[in-house]
Amino acid sequence: MIRVLPADDQALVRGGFRMILESRDDIEVVGEAADGREAVALARATRPDVVLMDVRMPVMDGLEATARIVAETDARVLVLTTYDVDDSVYAALRAGASGFLLKDVRPAELVDAVRVVARGDALLAPQVTRRLLDRFVGALPPPSPQALDVLTGRETEVLRLVALALSNAEIADRLFLSETTVKSHVSALLRKLGLRDRVQAVVFAYDVGLVRPRSS
């Protein structure tokens, strides 16, 4: 059973999410939070697998709440936003969120997203991820090859393709590998770099200059 905690200051939104999620046999809504502080408290108390986190909330915003929940619990955070490219979304990914969804997401897509994040994957729509990073990865530090020294050449190449928002299947096709081998490389590079998931891998790859935003 996947335990989910919706956090949004609009009761109608929370109720809509609850209705959609609880219609599935494998998902349980363990509570609802109306602000960031309540989200943190409920995440500690109920230990959800996934928190649906609105960014703009009173008392404590979703960014601080995300950082605290990621630091203090094993819950994975799925950020909710009105716009598909928003500076607060990138900040949320840096804070440890495992991906983001638009608030007008279709019911089936919401359920799929919760399942994806609950099993440990990141929710990164390729076209949205590219636009997000192109816009908000600004003044990057100089490339730091030393940061990549722990990786093999193949792992570095896989990381570069992950940062370009390719799926495991697409990476396998590009590198003439099996998808299982690609999954093994991704797991290894995350472990070696001390990263939580693919979202953090994308941020890391841009930060060290392995991949750079396109010129606008």
TrEMBL record:
Record-listed 4-aspartylphosphate modification sites: 54
Entry-linked SMART domains: HTH_LUXR, REC
GO molecular-function terms, A-Z: DNA binding
Domain Response regulatory: 3-118
One of the GO BP terms on file: phosphorelay signal transduction system
PROSITE patterns reported in the protein's UniProt record: HTH_LUXR_2, RESPONSE_REGULATORY
Keyword terms of this UniProt record: DNA-binding, Phosphoprotein, Transcription, Transcription regulation
Domain HTH luxR-type: 144-209
Domain of life per record: Bacteria
Alphabetized InterPro entries for the sequence: CheY-like_superfamily (IPR011006), NreC/VraR/RcsB-like_REC (IPR058245), Sig_transdc_resp-reg_C-effctor (IPR016032), Sig_transdc_resp-reg_receiver (IPR001789), Tscrpt_reg_LuxR_C (IPR000792), WalR-like (IPR039420)
Keyword Calcium: no
Pfam families: GerE, Response_reg
Record's protein name: DNA-binding NarL/FixJ family response regulator
